[in-house]
Q: What sequence folds into this?
């Protein structure tokens, strides 16, 4: 089955793969274009996800729907735009066709690929089962299930060694995601849950943040990295820098701290240490002979296109843009947003036979939150930390949420959390009893419940 628009009477057809920040911003701009265009947005999901707040779903501050917007609703007013829910498996650049999983072929005049990245375990993919990453709503719900189930299992057991393992939480990776996860976990354990359990003292929970470089938030100015570290320590997070994880097995994290090898037994291990390109990177490498970097991202031209294919663009986290500064642009939402808008204008200019400009990223700064009243902001001309930085971080994240109702819901929820110290989305979903069984070691680890005979902990 094929959807073709390539004939003289048809408008220029732009196909966008991926409804993240880059793809959605491109679709929104093209949808309001006065140039005759047809736009098709393809995504495996029917919603746009505001990934910067995923960690708040993982720790029970927000519900998934608070940070997700249906793509059809967002683009409903763009009469030249169609949304297709499907998975692209292949691209035929000669026929200018993308091939979907359900045998549907969609032809294009211009193609924008914005499929992002996934978790990267640096050749140790077997760690993913015990140390899940955070890129999707399912990842966040899985993390929330693991975190909350650990406290529930600790409440039930009398085995002190098992209880200790349940009350240990290890976050691997000290970038923005890892810092935000660790800080919010500390607030959850040491404040929110502190008076809700009978048999455990959640204030005794250990939150350990492991970072391989010499400081947390490595891309930030050293002054802000140190401020973030002090904020984490104040929240009760144990920060271990220059620590290289060498193994994750049987709920034990092994890492090297200089020449010393250390181990931490923890039932909850969370991964925030690295990313790799989505499978579309390899497809573009194979089909279009695109140059890929070491993590599979596509090295693009100054106009975001692929060499020798001026009508195929790669934007967002999947793109390696090495033409500005001494290193590729970072994989953050503002880069994807600006690239999406740029490519939309670029395509409009080409259709009108005008000379398009080259892409230039305007870096307005970086933000990371650590906890209540604790954040760091780097605006290049000024660096802020503490309460004012936290307020700016809050405003910016609400501002960039896509739909008004999401902005309102998040503001109300954050306001409630602020004044009550409560988190209203602490729901354990899925196979609850199976999760507890796994936590309690009935199936793995040989750890016992109070109703069973004591078992040794390896």
A:
């Amino acid at each position: 089955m094929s959807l073709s628009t390539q004939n003289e009477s048809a408008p220029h057809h732009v196909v966008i793969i991926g409804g993240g920040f880059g793809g959605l911003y491109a679709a929104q701009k093209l949808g309001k274009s006065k140039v005759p265009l047809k736009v098709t947005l393809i995504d495996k999901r029917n919603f746009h996800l505001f990934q910067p707040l995923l960690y708040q779903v993982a720790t029970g501050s927000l519900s998934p729907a608070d940070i997700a917007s249906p793509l059809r609703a967002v683009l409903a007013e763009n009469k030249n735009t169609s949304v297709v829910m499907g998975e692209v498996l292949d691209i035929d650049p000669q026929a200018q066709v993308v091939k979907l999983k359900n045998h549907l072929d969609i032809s294009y005049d211009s193609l924008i690929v914005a499929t992002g990245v996934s978790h990267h375990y640096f050749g140790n993919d077997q760690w993913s089962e015990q140390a899940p990453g955070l890129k999707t709503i399912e990842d966040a719900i899985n993390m929330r299930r693991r975190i909350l189930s650990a406290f529930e299992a600790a409440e039930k057991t009398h085995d002190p060694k098992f209880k200790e393992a349940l009350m240990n939480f290890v976050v691997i990776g000290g970038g923005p995601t890892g810092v935000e996860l660790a800080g919010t976990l500390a607030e959850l354990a040491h404040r929110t849950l502190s008076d809700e359990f009978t048999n455990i003292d959640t204030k005794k929970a250990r939150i350990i943040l492991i970072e391989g470089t010499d400081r947390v938030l490595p891309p930030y100015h050293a002054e802000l990295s140190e401020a973030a570290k002090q904020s984490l320590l104040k929240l009760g997070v144990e920060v271990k820098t220059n620590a290289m994880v060498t193994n994750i097995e049987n709920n034990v994290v092994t890492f090297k701290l200089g020449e010393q090898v250390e181990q931490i037994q923890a039932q909850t291990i969370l991964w925030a240490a690295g990313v790799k390109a989505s499978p579309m990177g390899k497809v573009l490498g194979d089909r279009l002979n695109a140059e890929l970097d070491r993590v599979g991202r596509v090295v693009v031209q100054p106009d975001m296109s692929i060499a020798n294919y001026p009508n195929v663009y790669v934007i967002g986290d999947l793109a390696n843009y090495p033409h500005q500064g001494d290193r590729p642009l970072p994989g953050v939402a503002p880069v994807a947003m600006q690239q999406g808008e740029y490519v939309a204008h670029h395509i409009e200019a080409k259709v009108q036979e005008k000379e398009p400009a080259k892409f230039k990223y305007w870096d307005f700064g970086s933000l990371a939150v650590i906890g209540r009243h604790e954040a760091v902001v780097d605006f290049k001309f000024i660096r802020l930390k503490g309460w004012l930085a936290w307020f700016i971080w809050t405003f910016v994240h609400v501002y960039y949420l896509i739909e008004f109702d999401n902005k309102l819901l998040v503001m109300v929820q954050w306001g409630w959390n602020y004044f009550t110290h409560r988190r209203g989305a602490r729901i354990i979903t899925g196979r609850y009893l199976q999760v507890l069984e796994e936590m309690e070691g009935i199936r793995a680890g040989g750890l016992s419940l109070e109703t069973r005979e004591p078992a040794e902990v390896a």
